[in-house]
């Protein structure tokens, strides 16, 4: 038996793909607007009925590539069709990470959110390093943000695309919060 | 020969394949010059730096530009499904690619046609999708970091961003997280977990730990995980068993980090420059 024969069997099943997410909206007209927007921009999305665990929102949801959540949300925000909820299709009760770990290096401060770390020089308030992550926008975000002042650098929300970018956005917001004069 | 599959953060960079060389702090692939920062270019530079000492041929790279939209990654996935069955590599290391379960599975089918089957190493986005697809056990080595071992241990999470709070990483819980990852079949045959202490483990348990030298300032430095994956790939390509390669690579990466005398503002190229010396010294001691 080949090392992937079990996979071939699995591929015939109708189980949802684990790399998909669900966008939940307030009403059906928003679903239609969101579907049109996302399809027009080349995303492979499907309109489906909501899973039983989700009791909020209307009777339709949109299935989309979860990894590209940040990019998808930016596109929807642009047309005023923000979802009221975004959840992974395989486990709809999961929530984004909301715990931060802060490490004090004296002159430098590092904040980690999920798999992403952002480090700032406290004196100059310059971003000196970005580490962690695995999606292809991470090296791009580092290229665009490192060596720039925290308050002037482009935000991950503005130029990122993936869930790693989203995690970096959370670290970035927490860094701004911790570094702001109280 | 070793093949490395990944992306560069430049959307205009076309899909390019071929042997790569390192000229000071720049990679050269088919005449194209690629700056070494973090990500796959850092992995490639570390592989070359270590491979030079080990007597390896230059690695073969499959690279494409992708800044997170996934367009370049999907083009590369498609290319691999057509070209890998005809290729012969001893080791393949998959790195920063946009996680996509369908494409991942098609690439694995292409790998299945390769004779003999190469050693498979996955890190970054490709490790995420390998876990997500339920095919982690097909791989010989994963190289997760702090947040990523928690993600592998969480059987529900489709990405580290959704790792549940009660599983989230704490240094002293790594052995427990490794066990949980294996219990749910979400780990490769061997794991190299990088952190304050590096753990080398398989389904039977912890095989080795490496915790010296300890350089606290390395944690914020972007790309130190990429260099570790690059070094272990070079060692596996030289013929070492994956477990042995993982232990030596952990030691080399730490020593190169020490020689770089880093601060949290250090860039990874400064560490890469010390890899040849670190490889020489660690091999002498082993």
Overview features:
heterodimer, A: 182 residues, alpha+beta, Alpha-Beta Plaits, Enolase-like, domain 1, four-stranded antiparallel β-sheet, 6 helices, B: 286 residues, UDP-N-acetylmuramoyl-L-alanine:D-glutamate ligase, globular
User: How many discrete domains of chain B?
Assistant: 1
CATH architecture assignment name of chain B: 3-Layer(aba) Sandwich
Count of separate DSSP helical elements of chain A: 6
CATH fold annotation of the largest domain in chain A: Enolase-like, domain 1
Low-confidence spans of chain B = none
Could you explain how this protein is built, in words?
The complex is a heterodimer of chains A (182) and B (286). Chain A has 182 residues and is an alpha+beta fold. Chain A folds into two domains: 14-88, Alpha-Beta Plaits; 100-179, Enolase-like, domain 1 (2-Layer Sandwich), CATH 3.30.390. In chain A, 32% of the residues lie in helices and 23% in strands. Chain A contains six helices and eight strands, in the order αβαββαβββββααα. The radius of gyration of chain A is 19 Å and the shape is elongated. Chain B has one domain: 3-Layer(aba) Sandwich (UDP-N-acetylmuramoyl-L-alanine:D-glutamate ligase). In chain B, helix 1 crosses helix 10 and helix 2 packs parallel to helix 3. Chain B is globular and about 45 Å long. The mean pLDDT of chain B is 96. Classes of the chains: A alpha+beta (182), B alpha/beta (286). At the A-B interface, strand 6, strand 7, strand 8, helix 4 and helix 6 of A face helix 3, helix 4 and helix 5 of B.
Short account of what is shown:
With 182 residues, chain A is α+β, with helices and mostly antiparallel strands.
Write the layout of secondary structure elements.
The complex is a heterodimer of chains A (182) and B (286).
Chain A lengths: L4 H6 L9 E5 L3 H13 L5 E3 L12 E5 L3 H10 L6 E4 L11 E5 L3 E6 L2 E6 L4 E7 L4 H9 L10 H4 L3 H17 L3
Antiparallel strand pairs in A: 1-3, 1-4, 2-3, 5-6, 6-7, 7-8
Chain B lengths: L1 E7 L7 E8 L2 E4 L2 E4 L4 H15 L5 E6 L5 H13 L7 E4 L6 H12 L6 E4 L1 H9 L8 E2 L3 H8 L20 H10 L6 E4 L4 E5 L2 E6 L13 H14 L4 H18 L9 H4 L2 H11 L1
Parallel strand pairs in B: 1-5, 1-6, 6-7, 7-8, 8-9
Antiparallel strand pairs in B: 2-3, 2-5, 3-4, 9-10, 10-11
Helix pairs in contact in B: 1-7, 1-10, 2-3, 5-6, 7-8, 8-10
